[in-house]
Write a structure and sequence with these properties.
- The structure holds three protein chains of three kinds.
- Chain A has eleven helices and eleven strands.
- In chain A, about 30% of the residues lie in helices and about 20% in strands.
- Chain B is of the alpha/beta class.
- Chain B has helices at about 55-60, 85-95, 110-125, 130-140, 160-170, 190-205, 215-220, 240-245, 250-255, 300-305; strands at about 5-15, 25-40, 45-50, 70-75, 80, 95-100, 175-180, 210, 225-230, 235-240, 315-320.
- Chain B starts with a strand and ends in a 6-residue tail after the last strand.
- Chain C is mostly helical.
- Chain C is built from 14 helices and two strands, in the order ααααββαααααααααα.
- Classes of the chains: A alpha/beta, B alpha/beta, C mainly alpha.
- At the A-B interface, helix 8, helix 9, helix 10 and helix 11 of A face helix 5, helix 6, helix 7, helix 8 and helix 9 of B.
């Protein structure tokens, strides 16, 4: 349903051209949960903001193709794109504390999204908001629509944001680290909710996170990003059982286990992720990679049939 | 039995919020409520819990960044609960704190070598050359290169900045280091580097740590003993392995089960306990057992009587009338 | 919400009493000076001094003097100016209030309307020519002193271009009572209103633009975009409402100060006998009862304006309602 091909996003800055996304291609299928995992600066958020058309920085250049159900989004005019946003595709963000306008009630903000895309009265939209809040397990939804964001806890605000995102039954929901700012018992409630709603609404979900644990809880397929490129893409089981790319492997190894034997020392990945301005001509992970060899001076393509990895060690001929 | 380096006895910290004239009047936040903790030389105590559980407040009380409301803090045999600024100064050298966001605690206009030299200038009478030698040694200890000293904090990545923060903290050879979420702001691929660095330094310098974090996997990795906090009190305290293998407090059990961990080959499926609702407000904590409002095993007694932290036949101590 | 407003009004009353005590203490209880001599004015005869002492109760304890003063200002209203030979102070001040209020309220309406338009248009066209043009105009407006602008306006409308079609409608300088002649009142004040408001239009337009641009970077604006709202709606509904909080704060301070006498320069230039001009004249002749009364009056308006701002907050920002 969503086809992204050769997406590039760069920003002109005072320190020069920063290439945030470099030729990223992926698909999202109907009704699946695609996990996107990566560290800060890996481009995971930027690539999906580009899908939503939410990069409105005059210094940004976006090239490539993004097709939602066959409609090309990259050069679509803003008014048309706006009609898709919040109806066909919706997005929820990391920090629920700041994601809602502080001066309007929850109900008003949900109703606003409904009335923007549908010709219904405000009263009917508010009734729908009550239903939606009930669906995301708000206690007392009739009362909750009159509440203001500051009166709710982080978990409750995130529920409100989710209810709002789902208000027009979007076919694509993009969730950008929606549980990172929450406590883990609350995170579990939200993950559970996302999974249930995804089933009920038959929406495709793209779930962005830096947490391998969250990815393994939720996703059907996983896409690992590093320094603006996709380095590995496969089903969840494949990624966790047979990680191919050295970065994915190392990432999984550095996480301390919660059960079983405690290692004396954690495995580490030396160094730190590269800066956006110093993208070399080779594999971006090479400087930190223990398998580095000659071919790594060129950029490895994402190769493989179903389980794809961008690494010359796995796919010597690209 | 190792000797006790730090003894926090019945420590409470209450904050006043609002004023007499505001709508709800003057209210009291019970941030830390009657917590007792013995920290033995050379061990790492992990403090875990969700936001608002008081773990950060407690850690700040331990180093006297906050003045405690009740109780006593005994460090290295001396009562430091109410020492003045001047009397605290020699003790501060031995009692250091590392914060979550390293960049916020480093003056951006000073070179790294000056930042690391600062503790020596304040607490010692070393001359310039001696200080320079110490700084060079410290840079090496925390895995930075000698020429890193000439640079400014903003030229470093998050992981390197945390190394600078650690170098400053260990400069005066402290006995106890309180680490408040030291790896939470770092990228996943960098966290392990800092965790290992801290473990190495502990071994090399014989440090004692209080490690505060919401990340249970990291806490399990570094800690000898773990204290689980909920709404200002310790609900379970015991050896790290036991806490994870056989939690005794229902909250600990739920907390551990809520951590999403990647499926590893051969790992057994874990049972999920999803707690309902949010953590109640510490302004108006529930009666009886603080956890009773969310506890899946709540009974009548829990609503009235507050359980104390006790052994009751298990390995770890649990504050629960009906431990698991 | 009602409770919050009532509480705010209660605080206001408390502040007002505090200010009146302080002002009274400064003027009448300063050690080493005889207030009677100052009230009586220069070269007063011993009889007058004696009369002053008696009428202000200077032979009684301090709190009695204060109560007497308050009674003469607020209850009987018979406080007398000795410098101006028996002029009743309270009616004199009351007479000036409509003049100042007419001037300031009219100017305030102008400046709020135009500042909001300028701020919103500039923020919406950020970095493009309408924004740049408006900001330059705003800066020019801020840079022109009111007395200069007023003099130029007078020069043009009262003399140079008085007989042309453009300004033939402008009446001679001075105030016309609204109740006597609404049309005359309006015409007499148009030029002063514009003169006084230009500075504030520039200032407020720039402030609003800055806070709108800041608000447009907020997370909730990104959420609003993700909802598919139009940029206009986001700007007017989500960003403007939060930005107005700054705007209202500033407005309360300036409005209170202007009503309290800061419109002095405009009043003098356009020969309007308002509170500012009265205070100014009283200061020149050291007329203590008038100064006392106008200072009290000014603080009264500043406090009221601030209380109104707080009430406005309560409507604008739900977060204030509880804390």
């Amino acid at each position: 349903m969503l086809q992204v091909r050769d997406l590039c996003v760069s920003f002109r800055t005072e320190q020069g051209e920063a290439l945030a996304i470099d030729h990223v291609s992926f698909d999202v299928e109907e009704g699946e949960i695609l996990g996107v995992v990566g560290e800060s600066g890996s481009g995971k958020t930027v690539s999906l903001l580009a899908v939503m058309g939410l990069i409105n920085d005059p210094n940004a250049t976006i090239t490539g193709s993004i097709r939602l159900r066959g409609k090309e989004l990259v050069d679509m005019n803003p008014a048309q794109l706006r009609k898709l946003r919040g109806r066909e595709m919706a997005m929820i963000f990391q920090d629920p504390m700041t994601a809602l306008t502080p001066v309007y009630s929850i109900g008003e903000q949900i109703a606003e999204q409904i009335t923007t895309h549908n010709k219904i009265s405000k009263r009917a939209a508010l009734d729908r908001a009550v239903q939606l809040l009930a669906e995301v397990n708000f206690p007392n939804p009739e009362d909750a629509i009159h509440r203001f964001p500051h009166q709710l806890s982080g978990g409750m605000r995130q529920r409100a944001v989710i209810a709002m995102a789902l208000s027009n039954n979007p076919s694509l929901l993009i969730a950008d680290e929606p549980t990172t700012a929450l406590d883990c018992t609350v995170q579990m409630q939200i993950l559970d909710l996302v999974r249930r709603l995804q089933r009920d609404h038959k929406a495709a979900v793209v779930f962005i996170t830096h947490d391998m644990g969250v990815i393994s809880e939720l996703s059907d397929r996983v896409m690992v990003m590093y320094a603006g490129r996709i380095v590995e893409r496969a089903t969840k089981t494949e990624i966790f059982k047979h990680p191919q790319h050295p970065y994915t492997q190392a990432l999984l190894e550095t996480i301390p286990p919660l059960t079983g034997e405690k290692p004396d020392r954690l495995k580490v990945i030396p160094g730190s992720p590269p800066s956006l301005f110093k993208r070399g001509t080779g594999c971006a992970f090479a400087p930190r990679c223990k398998y580095r060899f000659e071919p790594c001076s060129k950029i490895p393509p994402l190769a493989g049939a179903v389980h794809k990895a961008a690494c010359f060690k796995v796919h010597p001929h690209g | 039995m190792a000797d006790v380096l730090y003894h926090a006895r019945n420590v409470s910290k209450r904050f006043k919020v609002g004023t007499r004239f505001s709508a709800q009047g003057l209210r009291t936040v019970h941030a830390v409520d009657d917590v007792s903790l013995e920290i033995k030389t050379g061990e790492t105590i992990g403090l875990v819990g969700e936001s608002g559980c008081g773990k950060s407040t407690l850690s700040r009380c331990l180093v006297r960044l906050y003045n405690i409301t009740d109780g006593a803090l005994i460090f290295d045999g001396a009562d430091i609960s109410h020492l003045g600024v001047r009397a605290m100064r020699p003790i501060r050298a031995k009692l250091q704190m590392v914060f979550q966001d390293p960049s916020a605690s480093l003056n951006p206009r000073r070179r790294v070598k000056d930042l690391i030299a600062e503790p020596f200038r304040i607490h010692t009478k070393l001359n310039r050359k001696e200080i320079a030698e110490k700084v060079a040694a410290l840079l090496n200890d925390v895995g930075l290169l000698p020429d890193h000293g000439e640079r400014y904090p903003h030229e470093f990545s998050g992981g390197q900045r945390q190394r600078i923060g650690v170098a400053r903290a260990i400069a005066l050879e402290p006995k106890l280091m309180v680490l408040d979420e030291p790896v939470s702001a770092l990228d996943v691929s960098v966290q392990a580097q800092i965790v290992n660095l801290l473990a190495d330094l502990q071994q090399k310098l014989g440090l004692t740590y209080v490690f505060v974090s919401h990340d249970l996997a990291v806490v399990r990795q570094v800690s000898t003993r773990i204290a689980v906090m909920y709404l200002g009190s310790i609900v379970e305290l015991g050896p790290a392995d036991h806490i994870f293998a056989q939690p005794r407090h229902p909250y600990t059990q739920a907390l551990i089960s809520a951590v999403p961990v990647p499926d590893r080959p051969g790992a057994t499926a874990r049972q999920r306990i999803i707690l309902q609702g949010d953590v109640p407000s510490p302004i108006n904590p529930p009666s009886g057992c603080r956890f009773h409002t969310r506890c899946p095993r709540v009974q009548d007694l829990c609503r009235v009587q507050r359980p104390v932290l006790e052994q009751k036949g298990g390995v770890s101590l649990a504050a629960c009338h009906f431990p698991l | 919400m009602i409770w919050a407003i009532l509480r705010r009004l209660g605080q206001m009353l408390f502040v007002l009493v505090g200010i009146s005590v302080m002002v009274f203490a400064i003027f009448f209880a300063t050690p080493g000076s005889d207030p009677a001599a100052r009230i009586a004015g220069r070269n007063a005869s011993p009889e007058v001094l004696e009369a002053v002492r008696k009428s202000f109760g200077f032979d009684q304890p301090f709190y009695m003097q204060y109560l007497l003063m308050m009674k003469r200002i607020f209850v009987t209203g018979d406080l007398t100016s000795f410098v101006n030979r028996g002029w009743k102070v309270v009616p004199a001040v009351i007479d000036t209030i409509p003049v100042t209020l007419s001037l300031v309220i009219g100017a305030a309406i102008l400046w709020v309307v135009f500042a909001v338009i300028i701020g919103v248009v500039a923020a919406a066209t950020r970095g493009r020519w309408p924004d740049k043009l408006l900001m330059v105009l705003g800066l020019i407006g801020i840079s022109m002193p009111v007395f200069w602008l007023g003099s130029v306006a007078n020069l043009l409308t009262q003399s140079r271009l008085k007989d042309t079609w453009m300004f033939s409608w402008v009446p001679p300088l001075g105030y016309v009572n609204f109740t006597d002649d609404p049309k005359g009142w309006f015409l007499a004040l148009v030029i002063p209103w514009i003169t006084l408001s230009i500075l504030y239009i520039g200032l407020y337009g720039r402030v609003l633009r800055a806070s709108l641009i800041e608000a447009m970077q907020e997370d909730y604006v990104r959420t609003a975009r993700a909802k598919g709202l139009s940029e206009t709606r986001i700007l007017l509904k989500h960003a403007l409402r939060t930005s107005l909080i700054n705007f209202v704060t500033l407005f309360g301070l300036d409005f209170g100060a202007l009503v309290g006498g800061s419109a002095l320069l405009t009043e003098v230039v356009f020969n309007l006998h308002g509170v500012g001009k009265l205070t100014y004249d009283a200061l020149l002749s050291l007329d203590l009862p008038i100064i006392m009364t106008t200072v009290l009056y000014a603080s009264f308006f500043v406090v009221i304006a601030n209380a109104l701002v707080d009430v406005a907050y309560i409507f604008l920002d739900p977060r204030v309602r509880e804390s």
